[in-house]
Design a protein that fits this description.
By secondary structure, this protein is mainly alpha-helical. It is built from 10 helices and 2 strands, in the order H-H-H-H-H-H-H-E-E-H-H-H. It has 2 domains: 101 residues, Fumarase C, Chain B, domain 1 (Orthogonal Bundle); 134 residues, Up-down Bundle (Fumarase C, Chain A, domain 2).
Amino acid sequence: MENNKYVTPLSGRYASEEMNQLWSNDSKYSTWRRLWVALAETEKELGIDITEEQIQEMKENINNIDYDVVSKREKECRHDVMAHVYEFGTKCPKAKPIIHLGATSCYVTDNTDVILMSQALQLIKQKLILVINNLKKFAMDYKDVTCLGYTHFQPAQLTTVGKRATLWLQDLLEDLEELEFVQSHMKLLGCKGTTGTQESFMKLFKDEEKVKQIDKKIAEKMGFDKVYSVSRTNLY
């Protein structure tokens, strides 16, 4: 199995190489590990006994994933996140006790979905802007080329090829505005513990004010400025 690209019956036919790589196993699970690093850094900053050596060990192994070990462990424990926690721990023996400390599975799974969707939107935005720029050039190049206009599927008065291209441009500009609106409203899930109550972090810190800082600190480390106030983490 290829872990450096997303594989579905349609991905090879339709998806770009960049999008395939973005949604690949390597991208997904390395993002899990970056989230674990952000969690450890945050907990250290708020007073939990975590060393810089442990954090550095995790950082050095973000992309060092043994999928055979993960697969074998998942068959034993029947849990994908715990299988990855175990495998990450084999690479980071010093950090093993604090990987995923206080968190729940949705901390890595749901936050990763948001992060990858955000990155995918940015990739689409870049390509959309390129198309808009190229179509703008096309419209200017053919602004004086006369062609027949239509209304109600019937021939109408004359227009130009460039003018008609601006109609396509308008649609794409509206797409860009909608995309930017979605981007501006994206939020990270944060880290709210089992069932979203943050009780596990209250047990760790015994300080409500510190617990309130966890979401914001992790979001900033992952490039977000907004976090959901509440979640239904693991509440099925």
